[in-house]
Design brief:
Oligomer: homotrimer
Largest sheet of chain A: 8 strands, antiparallel
Strand content of chain A: 25-35%
Largest interface: A-C, 40 and 40 residues
Distance between the termini of chain A: 36 Å
Number of strands of chain A: 14
Chain lengths: ~280, ~280, ~280
């Protein structure tokens, strides 16, 4: 994840507002299209960027992983609309987080755990009274994506409202527990988060902050897996480990599917062991 | 469905033309991309909004349901390109409907039945002679989405043409039969239209015009189903009935799939019974 | 494929840059969204058009088929970002092709074989030294779509860079072998390329350049298939042959799926036989 994305395009001055969308709405029904219609009604110039709408239904953790790992590639000022919301229509709050010039709208259900936990993030809970005044007090009870998140994202993108007026800063936002790896002096034990469409297994082990990570041994299902820098460095069919383009440990199969080859499912254990740190007998 | 969508964005003045797209073209081939290319060639500023392209092939009724239920969320002036068109290349006509500032382009096969049946809608059949003059007289026989609907939508959105010149008002457009529920004094019997990606069962029973609908009993497969306002109001795994965000009766399973739980398919019967109106023995 | 697409929209003057995207990235992860974020960072006004992202993983030949068959529908000046790239991060080059006012970016793996083989195409190999100077010298080894192709496409679209500075003209770009049909005086033998979502079988037999193609007999699995101009000209369930809207011979089943009916897979043989040219006994 870049610290800053350099912008050198000739058209860099007259910025167009960007709104990204990350949901579990799927493509079979026009749910996403309705969200976009309402954003455009508020901000006709918006550039709308789909992150994905194919998250498994209610996949709060995966949504949180992706928004943390992708937001820095967007231009400053982007509004990220993140709706995986099994509690829609109940008393759960709506959060607006700000960090480094980027804005995030999401239900208060743990989705923003990683974004909100950063020391430079300001998190607000949107005030129901303000929603009422803003003409958004009577959403349908089952589609806040269309009736609340979309007009809020559109108005934020258009500059018609500012976070300060929308609600108070809060610190009691919902946290997701247990999503980091276990870390010991000789071993880090993480888990498979999901397989991507190529069958590459994404883990929850971040390698960016681990000095000389390639000196550690990777063990999957008890067997060692060699490090590579990119897929083309090993023979077709080989299982390899690498730091992927999102900064985490990935298990891949060259020109194949690691998910199919290993049959590992989300939650399966992946270990990093320090050189020379053989497991104890009976481990 | 809102009577009007309030627009309050700061950028609300210099409206950008919006074109929505509703087809059965799928995402595996570049069919939709070609439609967009030709719209942008005619109207470079257009904002293009995908409703869905994943309708089952030839699903005219579902296309009609969605365009009726979603169009009012779009800014006035939007052009809706609706192409589910098994008769492509035959003598079937192309319709242009206008209602409340919105324009609809579709083949004359029943897709616009609900839109066109509204008393405020004007429906025109596009004149083949005019198409010829407009340089659109020789489309490929199998892809009118790209070769006719797209340039028509683009020119309408750009303001380069007006409906009056495109063809005469007609009243003999194709109607879809039998899509409403049976209505009696003590019972309304509708049917399942489809399941959405969450397994929620959409019915063809509109609740907006039924006073005190929650006093009626919902019966699915002979068993009563309790009303809720939103999913979070019942226990996980419960089957519930609600007025969904599109105004129709929906059968849902809290944190689960009603389609999987009930095994009901499109066409299955759903009944509303007036309180005290127990079925006759042997019913 | 049109020789030129006429543009008559009222908004035709102040063109907006168009970038098309053709990849095997899928929709389940935000890979495409990240590519778009970086294009917009360089060229905020760009209109982004998805061709498809659902190509089978590593389907270089299908990507090449589509980009050859669709590019002419895009406005002049369009940048086509084509990334099916199993060799990402290795020494394979990145190509920039120009033809008729359109620009194409792709890995040098055969994807641009058909585009580059046209006598009016200029092909350049992007110079790694220039990438370094442009601030693009350190991409992640596994996601050049985001880290190289996207910023290059965005800068080209924005007009900030010109092809001449990016690298030398080359003629040793990678060719795909064996993708044309066998042609004899009495027979042309091609093959099924793929089935589209309707089950229509696309072949590699181009009909545009074959005079009076409808006088030839079409044979699939040894049985003759009648020619039609469009689907509606034969009875439901019939197998028919036609010149499809991309100029190639297509085998279709009216109101059904030819792929399901014939069980033909990609690679299966399709023959055109001159009238009177019955196969030899034992053929």
């Amino acid at each position: 994840v870049p610290e800053e994305v350099p912008v050198t395009g000739a058209a860099g001055d007259a910025r167009r507002p960007v709104v990204s969308l990350l949901t579990d709405f799927g493509a079979a029904e026009p749910f996403v299209g309705l969200v976009k219609a309402r954003i455009l009604a508020e901000c006709p110039d918006a550039a709308l960027v789909d992150l994905t709408h194919e998250l498994p239904a209610y996949a709060i953790e995966a949504a949180g992983f992706w928004i943390e790992r992708v937001h820095a590639y967007f231009p400053s000022g982007t509004v990220h609309l993140c709706v995986v919301d099994p509690g829609v229509g109940t008393a759960r709050r709506i959060l607006l987080a700000e960090r480094g010039g980027q804005r995030f709208l999401a239900p208060d259900n743990g989705l923003l755990s990683s974004i909100a936990g950063h020391p430079e993030t300001a998190v607000r809970a949107i005030d129901p009274g303000w929603l009422e005044l803003a003409g958004l007090g009577r959403p349908s009870p089952t589609f806040h994506g269309r009736d609340l998140f979309a007009p809020l994202a559109g108005r934020l993108a258009a500059g018609g409202i500012s976070p300060e007026q929308m609600g108070p800063v809060v610190t009691d936002w919902q946290r997701l527990d247990g999503d980091g790896p276990e870390r010991g002096p000789f071993m880090i034990r993480g888990r498979v988060l999901f397989a991507d469409r190529f069958g590459n297994l994404f883990s929850n082990i971040e390698l960016e902050s681990l000095m000389d990570y390639w000196t550690w041994g990777v063990h999957v299902g008890g067997a060692p897996v060699p490090w590579v820098r990119t897929y083309g460095e090993a023979a077709a069919g080989s299982l390899v480990a690498l730091q992927n383009s999102f900064g985490v440990l990935e298990i891949a199969c060259v020109a194949g599917s690691a998910a199919a080859l290993t049959e590992l499912k989300p939650g399966a254990s992946i270990e990093l062991r320090r050189p020379g740190s053989a497991p104890r007998p009976g481990y």
